[in-house]
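User: Please predict the structure of the protein below. I'd like the answer in structure-token form so I can feed it into my own downstream comparison script.

Assistant: Understood. Taking the following sequence of 114 residues as input:
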Amino acid sequence: VQLQASGGGLVQAGGSLRLSCEASGSRVSMNPMYWYRQGPGKQRELVAGITVGGNPNYADSVKGRFTISSDSVKNTVYLEMNSLKPEDTAVYYCKILTNLDAYWGQGTQVTVSS
């Protein structure tokens, strides 16, 4: 199983980005998917997840600003991030949880300038 994350970049506060996580070797529609982030000097934290049934859940810090979704045709999970804040600056990782193991993408850097 491999996950390829992309879409990070530099954006001003208040701006938007969309992260993508393309999976190979497993189906995003058949496994829970997650986005995590790790800011400078911080522990990795869960940002959002989406169940097999398509139900999303979010960390309190991003509720109302971030949206997780999946596309079964493209076998890709997205994280739409709006109203970005400097404290959202982090490396963002996607994760898939299969019945065998958990697999991580390589991370994509998001930097929000004030």
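That's the full token string. The mean pLDDT is 97.
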